[in-house]
Records
---
Amino acid sequence: MSGKKNVDLLVGAQWGDEGKGKVVDMLGSDVDVFVRFQGGANAGHTVISDGQKVVFHLLPSGMLYSGKLCVLGNGLVIDPEQFLAETNELFQRGQDKARLAVSPHAHVVMPYHRMLDKLQEEARGKGRKIGTTGRGIGPCYVDKYSRSGLRIEDLIDPDVLRERLTYILEEKNQIFTKLYNQKPLPFDEVYEPARKWGEAIAPYVDDIRAILRKAVDEGQHVLLEGAQAALLDIDHGTYPYVTSSSTSAAGAFTGTGLAPNDLTRVIAVVKAYTTRVGEGAFPTEDFEEAGEKLRANGGEFGATTGRPRRCGWLDIPALKYSMELNGADVIALTKLDVLTGMGGIKVCVAYEKDGEKISTWPTDYRVLDNLKPVYETLPGWDDDITNCKTFEELPANAQSYVKYIEEKLKTPVMLIGVGADRNQTINRGM
Ligand code: IMP
């Protein structure tokens, strides 16, 4: 180990589901430490390895590799049941427990958070629903910031858990009974399972900041694995149609305790077209045949909720914004094969609204509504690209599409996904 820092940060550049899991998995053989730093079980990272499909919601995608350290940072909200289900499944496959470390400062998603998530969505009603994953993410982050959350360190200490839960549940039950006309949750029904979760999680709890500090200073290759994506960021995304965490690059520091100058490279994952699950602006959404075709060819159904994803074309102004926000050094372009046989490929280069041309991503949601995209159409290709191993093997029009993206975003495309398997990736020097 050289002692030279080697820390990659991987972020989604659109609205999630860019195929980050596959990119992490693909880079994985060279990585020593995999880290998740924000979000929770709302994520769904699908990895197909040797023909086997594995979906991670909470654990870093690197868990499929043997002998590597995987870390859940303090910025996460951890659903203990999901955590235990995912770890058990992996350990049954023969993975080693010693490789997993969980921050004591991560927050715990409790059953009342999931209940509140659903009740709040129902109460928002038609037209105001966010379309959350129902995993309790928003309510858990609310408790974190209002300082009435439970952290993993509280869960593993039965006395502290009892003391804090007594007070927290009293407040939650007021909300359930008075605001939502629901039955109160009996203390023991919440406390007993939580105590057991604490016991089961305790062996994994460690000072992840110190572990990461040491790993970075020793020059180990650390991969910070973003979940969701920049346009769903609580501050910089299409608020209020966002998730509740800092999904863009900045979240990696608050969510781990690493410092900005630890970072050596930012990899932005860009899908070759655009999808979105849930509500909110999506200027390039295609409601016609092309959208249907992208959904069918790309298997665009939510990994967490199974919902059909909204599909449409690449949006250059949105991506430029995303590149700036994340300080992207390189792009991993995923699912290029899905565009095979699509005919002409549309790319949005600007928008029109009320007769006015807008060429940058508007962050005001009032402007974002009803934007008319201005498209350029690039020639498509029909040849199967799923067996291409090098850039030069791609059809000329597929090569031109990649070059077009590089020019528009002023960022090199270093990885190109041409199929679902780990091996179906063109590596241009990552
Ligand atoms: P929440 O994170 O469950 O609160 O959901 C808020 C918004 O983020 C909804 O539009 C979800 O569909 C979206 N979202 C959350 N996680 C993911 C993800 O992993 N991929 C894509 N969209 C997501």
Note: The pocket of inosinic acid is lined by residues 16-17, 42-44, 130-133, 135, 137-138, 227-228, 232, 241, 243-244, 277-278 (CB under 6 Å).
---
Amino acid sequence: MIKAISHLGVAVKDLKEAREFYRSVFGLKSSEPIVGGGGTVRVSLVELENATVELLEPVGNEGPIAKFLEKRGEGIQHVCYEVDDINEEIDALKAKGVEALGEPAPGAEGLSAFLHPKGTHGILVELVQKE
Ligand code: CO
């Protein structure tokens, strides 16, 4: 069952500038950046009461965030929903014809998997089963 929005993934060109914007304009702290996604993305998290904003800056020109920025510019790149049991959820979605992008894999918040935007009305959806 999909329960809540866990985070919004936001593609930014310059993580340092984006973090400074969130701090000075919105008054929000963000975590120290870490590199993830197999070395293709630098991530900093802005924690709110009901969800997290995941600021994503590309590392190099090849990863999904670099490609997204090239095509679409800065903005929301994915929406992450929290689920109870990710394997059960992915199986149920596949049975309904939704295309998953790979198998669930360990991420920052727990096991996560992505759904292809062509099957979700244009949004790259991430599902996470929190630890
Ligand atoms: Co995410």
Note: The two ends are 16 Å apart (CA to CA).
